[in-house]
Amino acid sequence: MKVVISAGGTGGHIYPALAIINKIKEKEPNSEFLYIGTHNRMEKDIIPERGIPFKSIEIYGLNRKHLLKNFKTASALCKSYKKCKKWIKEFNPDVVIGVGGYVTGPVIYAASKLGYPTFIHEQNSVPGKCNLFLSSKVTKIGISLPASKNDFPKDKTIFTGNPCGEDALKVSPINKKDLGLDEHKKLVLIVMGSLGSEKVNEYLVHTMNLFRGKDYEVMFVTGKKNYEEISKQSFPKNVHVVPYIDGLTRLMKKTDIMVSRAGASTLSEIIALKVPSILIPSPYVTNNHQYKNAMDLIKRNAAVLLEEKDLQGDTLVRQIDILMRDNKKREEIKKGLESLYIKDSAEKIYEILKEITGD
Fold first, then answer.
1. Which of 6, 107, 152, 253 has the smallest number of CB atoms closer than 10 Å to its CB?
2. Ordered structural domains, the chain, with CATH
């Protein structure tokens, strides 16, 4: 299979794209890929490092605060569309895939104009504007969470789940001792994303002393940006503070409770691994989509919600203690997560691709 694939801006788009690539490679080892991403975001480093042919375009999202900057955006979009059209014609793929981010706009639009089969994947409950625009032009649409099904044409839309979840199941559990943890104690994993969250981290720093004397351990992942300052603080012996964990999914397999934002890829792993979680959605994202992502779990009794505005005093520690003591509640959450899990998500996407390419 020859595939043009595009996704950009954040790991929430890039890693599902990589999961799709990995599945296609598993099924058809001789497949060829061309990845089209932005010139200045994460994918420009992540994709070439994995030996995947990469081309970049200069493109920007709409600027709602400085409207004059959108003239530059429009100009970049026109140039990008012409480049994508040229590259797609030269590569002549069997299918063109978009996995989120505004970079996918000119790629998928060019492919549809050229008559190639196209597939887009939406990770969030609230679809991005680019995917909404493209939905009328593509052949098929995959969604990760049930709430977004009403935003897309019913005849094209398939509930595939998020392929990152399938990848999470394949990794081996970490040895807790390698991180200085006790294999016999329960673990609370607190992580607010790769860059952390300054406001939440500030609250957490002042909260860590409340874990003193608890019969469980806490792994607090600060994010690289905040680690140096936070690491100067003094914490209880059962609290471990690190800037990041390489292979976080491996530790999630040994985690009893996770405290996390509600980004799409993180939720896909929480769902796949059935990790009871306390979700603190970021209120700073477009369309408050993390809150709506979290609500998809809350409606299934598959997580506990704690909004950032409610983080005061011992609120978080009390929620953790309640959940840690209530074995029945944790089991109910795991059952709720199981009801949301789409088995073999990447496999489902692969079968859709085979269908739309006529193979």
1. 253
2. 2-161+342-357 (3.40.50.2000), 169-340 (3.40.50.2000)
